[in-house]
Amino acid sequence: MNIDKQKFERDGYVVVKNVFSAEEIKQMRIEAYRQYEIDKQKKLDFQLPNLPTKAKYSKGDLLSKELLSHALLDDRMLKIARTILGNDNLVYFGDSSYQIGTGLRGFHRDNIDRTDLNGPDWKGEYTLIRMGIYLQDHKNYSGGLKIKLGTHKNEEGKPIFVDSEVGDVAVWSLKTKHSGNAVRLKMFPNYSINTSGKENVIPSFLKKEEQQERISLFMTFALKSSHLDRYINEYTLKRDDTLEHARVSIYDATILDVAKSKGVEVIKPIAE
Q1: Of 22, 74, 117, 226, whose CB neighbour count within 10 A is largest?
Q2: Checking phi first, is residue 143 left (phi over 0); if not, alpha (psi -120 to 50) or beta?
């Protein structure tokens, strides 16, 4: 794998090519659908109201999902995280999810100080990264990620499509402005529509629609730091949805042993 840490530090994101094989991604798609059926039986499934499209979500993180936890602890994913963060001592704190279908759009940051660039998040080395596995081609079709270059350091930057293909892994700083479920136009596939309201009303005949239903897996890794402590205290523990997400994330002892054997410290924000 070619993990370009310099590009990540310069642009606030990087795509690592060909991490998974086409067969592995095909199997992951099967596992995601099966996991959703299991989660429906457990009454963990939900959808966000008032969306033009109804993406399917599930409460509980990936480490608590019997069919998807392997993706989070895959040695290749851990190697990417360690390389980007520059340290072997990874911390996982329950921040991960999977999604089926097209969901929310709109540029935003995921850190605490999203608009105040003088806040604590912008002082010292920031140690939280998000990783995305998109189980379909978004280099040529809609549904992928857009980011604004360099916005992990600056207020604004040029918007670009993240050209992820099947098997790739996207990595970005929680401080980087990004937007999911991006719309590619048939006539101008690299033209970024930067207002989510406009993106939501583009008719289908103008879009390069996904060839497969969009499925994505997201996970956050960190290093121990004041930034991680603050994120847990000011975000995870202060929102009803993230508290519920943590409450229903029940870890099997076996999977915790796997995490420990791979050198990943698992922090549970709230007690089971």
Answers
A1: 74
A2: left
Question: How far is Cα 95 from Cα 97, in angstroms, rounded to an integer?
Answer: 7
241 by Cβ neighbours in 10 Å (0-12 / 13-18 / 19+) ranks as: exposed
Cβ–Cβ < 8 Å for 78, 90: yes
Q: What is the pTM of this model?
A: 0.93
pLDDT at 190: 84
Closest Cα to residue 161, out of 132, 187, 175, 181? Answer: 181
Instruction: Could you please state the CATH topology (level 3) that the domain comprising 5-266 is classified under.
Output: Jelly Rolls (2.60.120)
Contact 166, 25 (CB under 8 A): yes
Q: How far apart are CA 98 and CA 207, in angstroms?
A: 24
Give tens-digit pLDDT for 109-142: 999 999 999 999 999 999 999 999 999 999 988 8
Q: Could you report the per-residue pLDDT of 164-190, keeping only the tens digit for each?
A: 999 999 999 999 999 988 888 888 888
Alpha helices in the chain (DSSP H): 5-11, 22-41, 69-72, 75-85, 196-200, 226-234, 240-247, 253-261
> E strands along the chain, which residues?
13-16, 45-46, 56-58, 90-92, 96-100, 128-134, 146-148, 159-161, 169-173, 178-179, 215-222, 264-266
> In this predicted model, what pLDDT tens digit does every residue of 16-68 receive, in sequence order?
999 999 999 999 999 999 999 999 999 999 888 766 667 899 999 999 999 99
